[in-house]
């Protein structure tokens, strides 16, 4: 019970400093739900959770992680959230090297909550998607709200359970995900909650109010946040507080904070603003509106124009009109492909790419010209490191060439007699032989009888199935390799590029289909937030497995576009600019585009699959990329939250990861 | 299930069999009258529709062409569930594909619709000189298992229309319309519980 570290919470600067030091230690154990009594300050930590982050922008990579705590002082409960300090050796620095993506230092501390009395909290909204990160939004009695806290290590339930033990908390009658704190207005709720929550320690008898303290001093001088020099608002005397006035200065600070979150997705804004309404007039307009919408759906679900109405309740702007506008703003004009001259300007004298983020962004918006594709792909795929030198890469190529030969020899040396006794090998070779002869044979590079490139395709796939024996060969892989060999024109280099690609796409071919299922599931979640009418239609038509998008996802749209378009698309996708999962937003974009037809014709699963398969060759690539970009930006963090970590093509989650799970920043 | 209405029957048909046996080629020959030497592999599944006239009845086939590789096996129930007919295809130049075909037949007998009309197609019969599976062997197997058997060639079109025509003829046309055609994923609870598909 008391083995966790002890803190003097009356001295916040020590607390902040200490929390930085034991970050690495404390995440190794389950540190929440344990009580710690501090001798000096008389405060008791009743809940502590690492890796609770806020997202100042829509990019998960720009999150600020910290520790969320609940602590008791006397009979009062307080909440604190202290961001980790970026360390020189450590993880917080990892959050971004590119200038624009690093949260400014003052931003980092702007959101610090040193001690927020729960007496000032009006309600807490929780959001616990089945997949993705859970988060909560804390709304103050003043009507202001803190940005969503994302619980990267889970623990929302525990958080609420702990709150339940210490403050008077009731579930909103209108929304099961809203928990009202200190709500004594509704006698019925009160009765219910007292039945439900015996032994609640009410904080209602606290006589004084404390204003929420958002550490302002850090705004002026971020350096002072550090250690003992940080004293701005941390003295205990502030706890004496004053009765809350309508012109609470804290309110202005909070507004500043909220403005910082202008990029926080519309969902969060809506949620909080509706809760504001709730707190001010006691009405719950949002939920009522929702109910109305739901009932209108029920009665008219077959009529597509009525279905449009349901977009009102979509968390993200999916009102068709609004979307038209967003599209105009966001779907950036595509650029001309990256040229050789431009490409060379990204290198330093020794051949390092200094600003890989800028390069990736540039490629995202225009792709690359044919003559440099061979070089560019090696970086995009991760075969070459951006910060490697010319000399290092040359050396790598020779090492890798012989390494490839070694692996290839493993199957090359299997004699006919040996093969006779090696069913697994014969089967594998048989699968590959069958597929390579029907892979892109209409492309000149693979055309005609006894084409040597078909043999190379075969050799690489067979070698890969030895390199990754557990995964083996699976239909679809030849589609992924074909353009790579076409571009590289070199067996060993193609092999290693394919290996790099399969690091990300390998799970698409898992025996249990887990990689595909996670993507299809994420897709269904994305459609749910980005096009709720279509989602509702699929639901009603029993098409929520999204299996009709299987081919799109399995081989990255390889069968849907012309060969040169595929190369363009893949290099765009591989930049992982905006999202590693742009392909899922592309799926949404295409489905959305055909929503009218799909719903108007009441397509069932069969018809839908046929329709989708027949779109092949008729999809406007540039439009789709732009639309996907807009949807991705629009969905923001809620979109990212639909896609659980480790969903291909994200790198698989490794268990021994550091503090900050590697994300989009890593190529 | 086959459904009837005004002398027309909708029938869901699924093609099963080893990869490369010629499932896609057969259906493309039947639906489009074409043959591609390098017919690309099937990713996921493909869906086709084609209508046949049998006597005074028209049969509209809704055809599911599936991916043959073992790895995608777990997805197959999603397609054969509720199918009125199945063609299990093997390649007469490959004994392995014949063994795979037997496994599919077994699975259909266990998991499929009991009234399903099942055909066995020994495809690529134009490649006589590479034959590995004798006609008699396949015919005997088919008889023992209540299937009807034809050797086909998607390449030369031998017996392709015939096999679909024969299926159409054998469909229990009087079968009442229990459910609208095309609803794959909702089925009777009994059938659903038999399925091991994770996609439903
Ligand atoms: N000679 C010959 N080749 C065929 C025949 N049917 C299919 N093929 C070839 O066999 C390969 C695999 O055919 P495909 O229809 O894709 O098989 P699936 O994997 O079962 O769908 C392709 O190269 C076809 O051209 C046939 O009847 N005769
Ligand atoms: Mg096929």
TrEMBL record, chain A:
Sequence segments annotated as region (Disordered): 1-42, 214-250, 289-316
GO molecular function: GTPase activator activity
Record-linked SMART domains: TBC
Top-rank taxon, per record: Eukaryota
Pfam families per UniProt: PH_RBD, RabGAP-TBC
Biased composition (Basic and acidic residues): 1-10
Keyword terms of this UniProt record: Acetylation, Cytoplasm, GTPase activation, Phosphoprotein
Domain called Rab-GAP TBC: residue spans: 367-577
Gene3D superfamilies linked: 2.30.29.230, putative rabgap domain of human tbc1 domain family member 14 like domains (1.10.8.270), Ypt/Rab-GAP domain of gyp1p, domain 3 (1.10.472.80)
Main localization, broad class: cytoplasm
InterPro entries per record: Rab-GAP-TBC_dom, Rab-GAP_TBC_sf, SGSM1/2_RBD
One Gene Ontology cellular component: cytoplasm
Subcellular location: Cytoplasm
Residue stretches of biased makeup (Polar residues): 27-40, 231-240, 291-304
Free-text function comment from the UniProt entry: Acts as a GTPase activating protein for RAB7A. Does not act on RAB4, RAB5 or RAB6.
Subunit relationships: Interacts with non-phosphorylated form of RAB8A; phosphorylation of RAB8A at 'Thr-72' disrupts this interaction. Interacts with ARMC12.
Protein name: TBC1 domain family member 15
Species of the source: Canna indica (Indian-shot)
From TrEMBL, chain B:
Single GO MF descriptor: GTP binding
Cellular component annotations (GO), alphabetically ordered: cytoplasm; endomembrane system
Membrane-protein topology: Lipid-anchor
InterPro entries: P-loop_NTPase, Small_GTP-bd, Small_GTPase
Example GO BP: protein transport
Record flagged with keyword Lipoprotein: yes
Keywords for the protein's UniProt record, in alphabetical order: GTP-binding, Lipoprotein, Membrane, Nucleotide-binding, Prenylation, Protein transport, Transport
Pfam entry (one): Ras
Assigned protein family: Belongs to the small GTPase superfamily. Rab family.
This protein's name: Ras-related protein RHN1-like isoform X2
